[in-house]
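Q: What changes when pyridoxal-5'-phosphate is included in the input?
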Amino acid sequence: MTVALDTRPLDLLADFPAIPDGWAYLDTAATAQKPQSVIDAITRGYDTTYATVHRGVYQRSADMTLAYEAARRRVATFLKAPSPDEVVFVRGATEGINLIAQGWAAHHLKSGDRILLSALEHHSNIVPWQMVAERIGAHVDVVPLTNDHRIDLDAMEAMLTPQHKLVALAHVSNVLGSALDARRAADLAHGVGAKLLLDGCQAVPRIAVDVQALDCDFYVFSGHKLYGPTGIGVLWGRGELLEATMPVQGGGAMIDRVTFEKTTYAPPPARFEAGTPHIVGVLGLHAAIDYVDTIGLDRIHAHETALVAKTRDALSSLNSIRLFGPEDAAGIVSFAVEGVHPHDVGTILDEERVAIRAGHHCAQPLMDLLGVSATARASFGVYNDENDIDRLVAGLERVRKIFG
Ligand SMILES: Cc1ncc(COP(=O)(O)O)c(C=O)c1O
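A: The predicted holo structure follows.
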């Protein structure tokens, strides 16, 4: 089905004080720049309204608790989750995945069970599973990619067995931009009784997410890639699965009753939020979700899809550039310039005031599969426009000139 794209420029650059005139910021997949409304929410959080949450008996603290819990409800509506009690604030996607690996998988998988990942995963969605697999004697299997660099769900269907208890996949690849057919992945996982965790780091800033429609079991993302602050992220899990998840950190705020003989834990989500939380980070995340929702994720998706199409077109017309990922990649274009190391590409582009990422993108197994040690990656956000692509192309012309 062809979707009519709304290609009107978003024209939002003025909202982002950290992007000076003439600087093409093409590294949103690493971290997004912050709109003024998020910066204001953070400032307000620390200046006129600051207090702790969940403990104080005075009004300021009660107000801050209300704001903190309002953010949790906002995340729940953003993800279309049935209940805010299923929303756990964590430091980021990495912490969310580790929490499920150690708090859920370590208690519900046994020796001989299998965990299924894909060949394009970020290290954050590989290493925690290797650690838990080693601990309990489980095995990690890897779904290959299709020729156009998507997770091969036909291969996944053929690989799944009743021994598979957990499938963990990127909703959108941070290197290739390939978007997963998450609903099909959930149906396949559930068909053998496995749970599905989706790593939504690159998806939430780019496509509307409905965890109920996707029918996944866990969903994680990081606030800083969604135009919010660093140090805050979200783990969403089905209520009954979070009930069956053990805390991995003990301390204040996560308990029901503490004695030296026995401690009982609070119900989720408090069970997983030991210690004083990142209060102001949560307020910033709330503002970031408001910002993105006001623009509309469908519009953001259309905008980034148009930029990806233009970039892929422009780069394929330059000789000696190899493009990775599918034509319809979400917001991300990885490429290699023949005979030039991606770090050199990145350095020369920086001289031209174009910021891209060059490296293995925390996806070394994917680099091995692609037969490269690194790629150059341009990734888009709401502030980018066609001028940024023109600058990228001009910068790449200079790379080719320098390297002959
Ligand atoms: C797909 C994906 N997963 C996980 C992560 C880890 O996110 P964080 O470092 O914010 O925990 C990233 C960050 O680059 C990512 O792109």
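Observations recorded in class: The first helix runs from residue 36 to 46.
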